[in-house]
Design brief:
Order of helices and strands: EHEHEHEHEHEEEEHEHHEE
CATH class of the largest domain: Alpha Beta
Radius of gyration: 18 Å
Largest sheet: 5 strands, parallel
Helix content: 40-55%
Structural class: alpha/beta
Length: 227
Amino acid sequence: MTKVKILYVEDEPFLGRIVKESLESRNFDVHMTTDGKQAYTLFETIRPDVCILDVMLPSKDGYSIAKEIRQANPYIPIIFVTAKTQTEDVLRGFETGGNDYIRKPFSLEELIVRINNLLAIANPKHPGTAEKHSFGQYEFLINRYELKIGDTVKKLSHREASLLKILCENRNRTVSRKDILMAVWGDDSFFNSRNLDVYIAKLRDYLKQDPSVQIITIKGLGYHFAA
């Protein structure tokens, strides 16, 4: 079985070595650098399956690296790792091409779950992952993070795609807010609950061209995807 290849950029050598060795013990192939300036060169050399980027780097920050990588490969999963906790930093991470965001300190198990979740969406051959969902006039290409209607294609973020995937899998059924939060964010905190409201609003906007497709709020419970 081919190992999942990871580009890992982390400027704290001690932490980086621990994470690298831990991931390698779980059968991942990890290529690490502590220098942001070398990150893109290493990316081109190894052609990884997943990128894990620290945000605060001395020579070139993770956001800049992500932009370069995203231009070269629109579909590769990118996870930001950082000690920053401000909402603005999280949003900037997604705006610059990140698919997920994990705060220090983190557990190895949490990181592996996030890696596997990203691969499940990005790789159509991943067990249990459907390649596409069709509903109303739309086609949702899961592995490409694309929502299509006619000739119009909307590129989705990782969390938008994850949320839409859950709704599609529960079409014409009600799914609870807590189940969505645990599946997409990993916890049901107030902060993430507010994020869910924002992402539901985004999806509703993307789906407004076909009135037969609706995300209905079931007060006190969750959402019902009618399609």
